[in-house]
Specification:
alpha/beta, D-Maltodextrin-Binding Protein, domain 2, globular
């Protein structure tokens, strides 16, 4: 799993960005992209959807694109949408799919024959620590309270999160293992995205929830949810909650997200999308958006991103097996 050290090293390794053309033909170098099609294999409201809409805002603001069209196809951590992207969007050079660690785990957990590596890796963009939250009126005042209940009877502590095998599921499994509870005994309630998981929390249908802090931020600010711990290596500025490690739970985890082109794009199209993401991640607008959403910029492009994906897939598969989730 990625630690904060991994994220910072990855970010530091990115070379200085040159002013590269957005499109590949000499005649089109000065043009912006007319229409960028974005495929989000999750329901609206979650982290992938937020990523896609943030990309849209930044690209529009910097006039890198004239239009953006976003398509949402939710279900099973991307296992439902991925086949559609691989088959129906094949060869579309102006298309990108948002995905990340969640999909890698979900595909393994769901024993899907599809592989994320079948898409064309373009760029890793962000890393995000996860938040353990509870409804405002919850009896759990701290992560220690949550762990005590988990030890007493894990089946009576339902935890909401994204789809099975994703980062949320991995984190609750890691917490359980760290405190001596069999991960397979945890009552994990999988949802298609952050929006439905938040609704379950607000409706007191579950005892706790796990997702990226940004997905819960509005409800936390509104006083409807409380964050009792974060999965980062230390406390985060502006968030009134300890890290899991501070609470005596030896767990640290960062989620990552990135974008992929469809299979079947040519080398020129692939390079054009890489260039688009290089230019976007170098803008002050992107930096500001990441800061506002508590995302850590960890840009990695093209072949380096592909190599990272291969290694990360192997690592996630090993952890899921260890936790009894694969």
């Amino acid at each position: 799993m990625l630690t904060r050290r991994d994220l910072l090293c990855g970010a530091a390794a990115v070379p200085a960005l040159a002013a590269l053309p957005l499109l590949t033909s000499d005649a089109a170098q000065a043009q912006t992209i007319e229409l960028l099609k974005m495929f989000v294999p999750a329901a609206p409201g979650g982290g992938w959807d937020q990523t896609a809409r943030t990309i849209e805002q930044v690209l529009r603001a910097t006039q890198a694109v004239k239009g953006v069209q976003i398509t949402n196809v939710g279900g099973a951590g991307g296992a439902v949408g991925l086949p559609q992207f691989l088959n129906q969007w094949k060869g579309q050079g102006n298309a990108l799919m948002v995905a990340g660690m969640v999909m890698v785990g979900a595909l393994i957990a769901n024993k899907s024959p599809m592989k994320l590596a079948s898409a064309t890796p373009i760029a890793r963009l962000t890393g995000e620590f996860l938040a353990l939250v509870v409804p405002a009126q919850s009896q759990f005042k701290s992560a220690k309270d949550f762990v005590a209940a988990l030890k007493a009877d894990p089946t009576k502590v339902p935890v909401a999160g994204g789809s099975a095998g994703g980062s949320d599921h991995i984190l609750v499994g890691m917490i359980a293992k760290a405190v001596g509870v069999a991960p397979t005994k945890v009552s994990y309630v999988a949802f298609a995205g952050g929006g439905p998981a938040t609704a379950a929390l607000l409706g007191n249908q579950v005892a706790a929830g796990i997702s990226g802090f940004g997905e819960f931020a509005e409800q936390i600010k509104a006083g409807k949810l409380r964050v009792i711990a974060v999965s980062s290596d230390k406390r985060q500025e502006g968030i009134d909650a300890p890290s899991l490690k501070e609470e005596g739970i030896d767990v640290e985890l960062f989620n990552w997200r990135g974008v992929f082109a469809p299979p079947g794009v040519n080398e020129g199209q692939r390079k054009a999308m890489i260039t688009l993401m290089e230019k976007m991640t170098a803008t002050p607008q992107w930096a500001e958006a990441c800061k506002n959403r508590d995302w850590t910029p960890i840009a990695l492009f093209g072949d380096e991103y592909k190599a990272f994906l291969d290694t990360e897939t192997t690592r996630i598969e090993g952890i899921l097996k260890e936790l009894g989730l694969a």
